[in-house]
Structure formats: C-alpha cells, structure tokens
Amino acid sequence: MTLAAASDAGPLIHLAEIDSLELFSTFDTLLVPETVYEEIEAGGAPDGLSDLSYELVEADESRVGAEELDAGERAAIAVAKELEAVLLTDDLAAREAASDADIEVHGSLGVIALGYGRGLLDRSEAASRMRALQRETSLFVTEAVVERGIRMLDEQ
Amino acid sequence: MAAEISDRVREIAEARDLPESAVFERALERGLEDLWEDLVVARYLDGELGREEAIEHVGRTKVERAERERDVVEEDVDWGLNA
C-alpha cells in the first residue's frame, strides 16, 4: 500500500533528537510544508534533515480554522487534507483538529512502530527508540504509556 | 553530568540563599514525587489500581492526561504494526 505523510515540526524534531530520521523512509512520500520547514530552520535545522528525502510543498494554512494551532500545524493539516496524506504530529490539539476533519493522524511513536512493522527495526531497537523518545527528547509522554506501547509490539 | 549537577546546585543555593544540602533535599523530594506519580499511573494503566484511587493519589488532570496519551499511543502503535 502506498503511504504518503505530511508532517508538522514535532515528529521531524523529536525523531531527529534520537537520530531516527531514517524512519521517514518507510513512507513512499513525505510532504513538508514550507511553513514547517521555516519553523524548523529557525530553531536550527537538525542533523540528518538534509539527508532526508522529502517534498517541500506550499500550503494555504488560512483554510484551516483551528486558530489555537500554530501556522506549521495548520499548514500540515491543510496539506494532509488536500493530498489525502497521513498527518504526522505530536501535538494533541493538532491531532484532535485533524481527526475532526477526517484526516488520519499519527505521531512519532507511530513512526517507530511503523519502522518495526515494516522490518526496518527489530523489536529490541524499536523498544529502545520508544524509550529514548520519552527520555531524551522534548516530547512529553508518560513513561507508563510508552511501556504499554512497547508491550503492544509483542502482541503482533 | 556530575559537574553540571554540582554547578546547578551551587547556583540554586546561591540564588535562593540556601545551603547546598537543602537544595539536594528539595531535589530528592521533587524527584521522588515524580517517580511516585509515574508508579501510580503505571499501576492504574495496568489495571492494578482503580481510577478513583489513582485520582486520589495524583489528581484528575494527570489521570485524564495519561488516558488521552494511552489512547493516542495505542492508536499509533496499532497503525504502525498494520499499515
């Protein structure tokens, strides 16, 4: 199955923080809105981003009404909606706005699980990266919840 | 890391006019509180502790946040394994 994703800044930053940007190669197409790229660049582009294969796309974020979200999140939602791609975000409010707009939405932990599901990572490496995501990045997620996600890998 | 901890303890002690031992004591209390809350949430999510009891220990906000995170993570992992 062909898999296209549009990402906001969160998963790109969080997966870069644990040297896991290569997991985006599990997608056939990765779309990065220009607004998102500018946000990332403003904070200092993470190592490995230049090696990543992605399409820089323009987006009209003004068409997305969720004003509590930042411009990058709205741009990623607009692109995902227009191109029928999966939205990648680690922001709970953006996730809810996307679900309300009938967009399939997942986060960094989902990208790691996808890497495991598609054979890019073995179980031990996937678990180790999930724990690193919780301990070593700016993503806030409760430890017990991550451990629950890791146990789900064994239930496959 | 050890040097960084020492530097921070010294800086906090100076800024708050506290002995360094008091800074360590407060750090231990805060850290222990975090670890305790993690344990309560883990026991609740694993079904070893009831919802009301978990709320009593860590507050409704933390329990509801953990429930939202659990739903999101389960949804994501399930998708990742089957996409």
Describe the fold and architecture:
- The complex is a heterodimer of chains A (156) and B (83).
- Chain A has 156 residues and is α/β, with parallel strands linked by helices.
- Chain A has a single domain (1-156), classed as Rossmann fold, CATH 3.40.50.
- Chain A has helices at 9-17, 34-42, 71-83, 92-100, 108-117, 123-136, 143-154; strands at residues 4-7, 29-33, 55-57, 86-88, 105-106.
- Chain A is globular, with a radius of gyration of 15 Å.
- Chain A is built from 7 helices and 5 strands, in the order βαβαβαβαβααα.
- Chain B is built from 4 helices and no strands.
- In chain B, α2 (20-45) runs antiparallel to α3 (51-58) and α3 (51-58) crosses α4.
- The termini of chain B are far apart.
- The model of chain B has no long low-confidence stretch (mean pLDDT 94).
- The interface between A and B is medium-sized, with 29 and 22 residues.
Structure keywords:
heterodimer, A: 156 residues, alpha/beta, Rossmann fold, five-stranded parallel β-sheet, 11% strand, B: 83 residues, mainly alpha, 87% helix
Query: What structural class do the secondary elements of chain A suggest?
Result: alpha/beta
Q: Mean pLDDT score of chain B, rounded?
A: 94
Number of extended strands of chain B:
0
Oligomer: heterodimer
Computed over alpha carbons, the radius of gyration of chain B is: 19 Å
With helices defined by DSSP (H or I, 4 residues minimum), what is the helix count of chain B? 4
Largest beta-sheet details of chain B? none
Q: Segments of chain A where pLDDT lies below 50 for 5+ residues?
A: none
Strand and helix map with partners:
The complex is a heterodimer of chains A (156) and B (83).
Chain A: E1 4-7, H1 9-17, E2 29-33, H2 34-42, E3 55-57, H3 71-83, E4 86-88, H4 92-100, E5 105-106, H5 108-117, H6 123-136, H7 143-154
Parallel strand pairs in A: 1-2, 1-4, 2-3, 4-5
Chain B: H1 2-16, H2 20-45, H3 51-58, H4 60-82
Helix pairs in contact in B: 1-2, 2-3, 3-4
